[in-house]
Amino acid sequence: MVGFAFNGREAVELAATLLPDVITMDVEMPVMDGITAVKKIMESHPCPILMFSAMTQVGAKATFDALNAGAIDFLPKQLEDIDANREAAKSQLRNRVRMVAAQARRLAAVRSARPLELSNRPQGDAALRTLQKTAESRLGNIDLVVIAASTGGPVAIQQVLSQIPASSRIPVLLVQHMPRNFTKSFAERLNQLCNITVKEAEEGDILQAGTALLGPGGMQMQVKSMGGRPQIVLRAKQVGEIYSPCVDITFTSLANDFSGRVLAVVLTGMGSDGKEGAIKLKQRGAQVWAQDETSSTIYGMPRAIAEANIADKIYSLDEIANEFKKLN
Q1: CATH number, residue 108
Q2: How are beta strands 219-226 and 229-236 bridged, if at all?
C-alpha cells in the first residue's frame, strides 16, 4: 500500500494509520514543515524516513535538523542533482528507498533479539581496567584520526567528534558521503557543536592539532607530504568513481604518503567504501576501528571492515565517543 500526504500534518496522520515500511518526505511542506513532522512521527510511530532537500545552504541546514530529529538519510530534491542521467537517478532513488526500508527491518530484528551490548569487552572489573589502560596507551601513539561514514553518518560523526577535548593535539580528517553544497554547512554545524575546530577542507590545508577537516562534496580528498608537512590535495571526481568524497581514496593516500600513526574509524553507511583503503592502512601499521551492528544506522561499511578481519576494535557508537574523550 502506498499513501500520499499533501502536507506535514497529513504525513503524521498517515504514518499512524498506514504504518509504512519507509517514508519519503520533503523538508519544505505547508501546514507543518518536514522537521516537525519527522519529530512527531518518530515520537509516536517510528519509521525510517528519507528526506528530500534543496541543494542550498538553507536546505542543508534544514536537512541536518531533520536527521537530528530522527530521519535516516537524505537525497537532493532534483533528480539531476542525484545523477546527470535521469534514469540512473530514478534507479538510485528506488534502490535507496528499498535499502533503507530493508535495513530498518533488519536492525529492528537485531535489536529485539538481544540487548545493546558493549562490543569486544572482557567481563569483570579487572579485565575492564586492563582494556582501558591498553586503549589509552594505544591512543597515545596516534598522530592522526580519520573518520569515515555514509548513511547515518552526520549524526554519528556529530556524536563522536563532539567528545574530542579542546586540548587535543591530534588532527582529524572526516570523509562523509555527501552532495556538494552540503559539506560546508555540515562543517559549520560541527564547528558550532564541537570543542575542536571543524572546517571544510581546502586545497593546501595543513593538518593541524585540534582541527578537523571535512572532505568537500563532489571532490576527492587526499593527503600528500609537501616539504615534510602533510597537507590536503583536492581533485574533481573522475569517470568511474562512485563516491565523492571516496573513503578508499583518502585512506589509500594516507597509507602511501602519511608517515605518522593513523587511527581509521569506519562508521555507519551503505556499501563497502573504505575497506580496500583500510587494508592498505592496516598493512602500514594503522589501527582500524569499526562501528558495531547494533548501533549502526546502516551496517554496510563497518560490516565490510569486520568481515575482512582488519578491525582492531568493534565498538558501539557510545564506546567510540568515550574513547575519543582520551584523544589529548
Answers
A1: 3.40.50.2300
A2: antiparallel
Q: Is 177 a catalytic residue?
A: yes
Rounded to whole angstroms, how far apart are CA atoms 62 and 185? 10
Least confident span in 18-27, 96-105, 315-324: 96-105
Task: Taking each helix axis as running N to C, give the angle between helix 34-44 and helix 57-69, from 0 to 180 degrees, rounded to the nearest 10.
Answer: 10
Indicate if 100 and 134 belong to the same structural domain. no
Q: Which of 73, 177, 253, 292 is catalytic?
A: 177
- The radius of gyration computed from the CA coordinates of the chain, to the nearest angstrom, equals 20
- The question of whether 137 is a catalytic residue gets the answer no
Q: What's the pLDDT tens digit per position in 176-232? A: 999 888 999 999 999 999 999 999 999 999 999 999 999 999 999 999 988 878 999
Which residue in 53, 119, 150, 244 is the catalytic one?
Answer: 150
Annotated catalytic residue 150: yes
Q: What domain count does the chain have? A: 2
* Maximum distance among all Cα pairs of the chain, rounded to whole angstroms: 63
